[in-house]
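Technical note accompanying the year-one report. For the benefit of new consortium partners, we illustrate the data format agreed upon in the data management plan: each record pairs a sequence with a structure-token string. No post-processing was applied to the example shown here.
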Amino acid sequence: MGISALTSPTRPEDVVEITLEFPDNRLLIGLCGEFDRNLAQVEHQLGVHVLRRGNRLAVIGDKSAREQAAAVLRGLYARLEAGKGVAAGDVDGAIRLGRPMTNDLRADEQIEMFKGSPTELRTRKRGVEPRTEAQKAYVANLFAHEMGFGIGPAGTGKTYLAVAVGVTMFISGAVEKIILSRPAVEAGERLGFLPGDMKEKIDPYMQPLYDALNDFLPGKQVQKLLEEKRIEIAPLAFMRGRTLSNAFIVLDEAQNATTMQMKMFLTRLGEGSRMVITGDRTQVDLPRGTASGLQEAERILNGVKGVSFNYFTSKDVVRHPLVGRIIEAYEADEAKA
């Protein structure tokens, strides 16, 4: 790679700086980002100072943070060498997945941690990589198990990654169709009767699924696949009586499925299919007194062979950082009650 790390021999160990040398100035520009915003993000999240000196970056801070920042910068440079870009989300992911170097972990091994990922997903429009350890385990389980549950707060990538896995498997030929579903339950509001035909009535409830698909496939291809029924987006109630074979099936907002709806959905699984159920137990919009099918399924299916459960917390939120703090504040308030 040609990256060298230098340390100042005249300073005590706890205040020594690490100087990283990057031979390719063009890649170094990509590493720093526009107006050095990538460096600023590393500084803010890890509590270090990064100084740019020609083709070198000096990292100053306490030992643990300094070494983690150096590992992150090396890893991001390795991404650029591999022909990948570095955006704000990539910096955040590298920081979340990184760990400080130890005496038994060489620099080249640390760099290798960020050189691609066995859980990297390739879609027609973009590559998708997990940004937290929980996301990484989740994606791995979706490939390894016929049925997977992703449970946790909003913004943790449960549905987004599930759709990305589905598109990846569809493109590779592992499945013949993608089926996306969610309960048509209003979030605490009464919208009344919606105008239009059946599709126009249900599309507002399904919009988050369309948004995810359009992130991974060109719009015209999505439309064509919808017309050919190779991609289906439908309310949970439309699943009754079907056997879903050779398909990748996602049930989103599963906390709003009743116990009977959940059992009905889970038993639609056919030969050659994979099924993913995502939900947030803190956002149940069912009528008071109605049990959530997600919670029941979690209790009943825990330990069943072929079924995996992955859990997310506010630490896994990959939307705006404020979303994670909002979730933590609500959790803290609920803990007081």
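Partners are asked to follow this layout when depositing records. The mean pLDDT is 81.
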